[in-house]
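Long-time lurker, finally posting.

We've been working with Anaphase-promoting complex, cyclosome, subunit 3 (Lishizhenia tianjinensis) and I want a structural starting point before designing mutants. I don't trust myself to interpret raw outputs, so I'm hoping someone here can both generate the structure tokens and explain anything notable. Sequence follows.
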Amino acid sequence: MIKLNYIGICLAFVLASFWGVAQPEDLKKQALDDAHSLSAKAYPNIEDFHKALRLQLAGNNNEAKEIYLSLVEKTPENDALFFALGNLALAENNPLIAQSYFQQAYDLDPKNMYYAEVLAMTLLELGEFERALPYWEMVVNNEPRDYNFQYYYAQCNVQLGKYKEAVKALNNVEGLVGVNPQISKLKIEMLPLIGQEDLLEEEITKLRLADPYNPETQTYILRHYIKTSSLETFKKRLFSELKQEYTDVSTYLYLLKIQPPIEDELKQEVLQKGIRSKTLPALSIAENLLFLQEQKVFSADSIKELADNIQNNFSDHPPVMDALDKYYKAVGKANNVLHLAQQRLEENPNDFQSWLSLSLLQSQLGLFGNLNASVHQAMENYPVLPQFYFLNAQVLAYYKEIDLAKESLEMGESYLLVASDTIEFLHHISQAHLAILEGDIKSYKSSMAEAKDLGVMQQDYQIAALHFQHFYRAPKLVDLQEVNSQLDILLYFQALKASADGNYTDAQNKLETFLSSYPEHANAWDLLGDVYFQLQQPAEAEAAWRKAQQFLTNNLNINKKLETKTFYEQKYY
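Top reply, 14 upvotes:
Generated this for you. Predicted structure of Anaphase-promoting complex, cyclosome, subunit 3:
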């Protein structure tokens, strides 16, 4: 019975999604149905019948019904009248009464297959499968190439537990319209029930080849092999397919999805062949870019080209962009992540996740001018989300607007009803920002410890600690060596260290490289100006400080440098 219920639910889903419900769509179609059903017996009262049809077309159903009923009293043998009354009942959303009228119309004219079809459909929708089945048999025999009829006939058989007949009818459907994933799954469920397990592999292979990209189908098929303890056999079959000259894309996709994962060497072969054949979808490539880079399957230039192509051609595919976003974050390409977020916001200015991603990256990179604009726009869009108030508190703290920063922090806390780890992390970092500004080292260390103990966003924690250490001269919590060496922002911190150690040429090279990717980084321009001054390049120093001033207005340190044309030791970097 469980199988019957499951299969019935699947069939109901397909009925709704694949072909739609076969019911008259509007009054006009109903009236045309009535005209179609006219027989010679209607002619004695043809004028009244046409009048009722016109009323029906105009939506005056009650008046039309009165005429039809009066005509029934005069000519009770008139099948067309009963059919017209049935259509009116459907228009009034009363299929139970409709089927009674359709039954009477059919009983009066049992050779009329149109009556049989409408009666069968109405009974099917009412769940009267036993009564509907003989009518669908007649309809199918009369129109064997109509896939809708074949499908409804199969549905009746499934509901009545007649799986053999149902499978046969569904085979007829696929013979007419091709393989349909939902129908294939129904057949796969029914074949063991009628002792035809030997056909399962053929049916599953057809499904795999016909619907290779659908994650639901992939999961369904893999679960089948796990359930039947035949996953290893399936893997061997895929390995064999991989050696063929022309490999189907489903072979690549299933080898990449199968769990436990295949060996790295085989995975390299799958990705190489899939990418070179130009059949592997962008999502699979994006999900495996990090593996390709770490295993050096392709050159760095080739991997960059793959990532660029995906970004340029699949910006409107969120799952692909999410996978690409994860790759860029994993390899420290924050600039690429920024561009992805900005690209998404251009297409959808209300994309919450992109606003959050953009703001978090701007905070991590120290792009506080950009962060200020992003956070204010996000707060307009989402005025009760605490994460943006916490980020705003960081911006205000950076500009030393301590009272306003506290106010923003308190606003965020007032909206802190259910906190995720990410929100809690931002909360603690904002508290640390204010604590260090006020010289409260104990609270600073406590807030940073709480942020670290959350166990999320560890990379962001390390970067935040480095910002505090270099910008606010906060107690040292993180060494440069601990941080992911591929992170773009690390160049800035390395330049800070090189400058502090007196290695000004090295600092200059690192800063110029960093600024080529992040030209709006005020602190980097400020530091570059200091480095130029130490290298006795005053004109270049002034130009760099002016650049910093563009993105960091009303900064007393920078203004003083430009006024005096002199570098001096300052409290904060």
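Before you design anything, note these points.
The first helix runs from residue 2 to 19.
The domain at 2-200 is CATH 1.25.40.10 (Serine Threonine Protein Phosphatase 5, Tetratricopeptide repeat).
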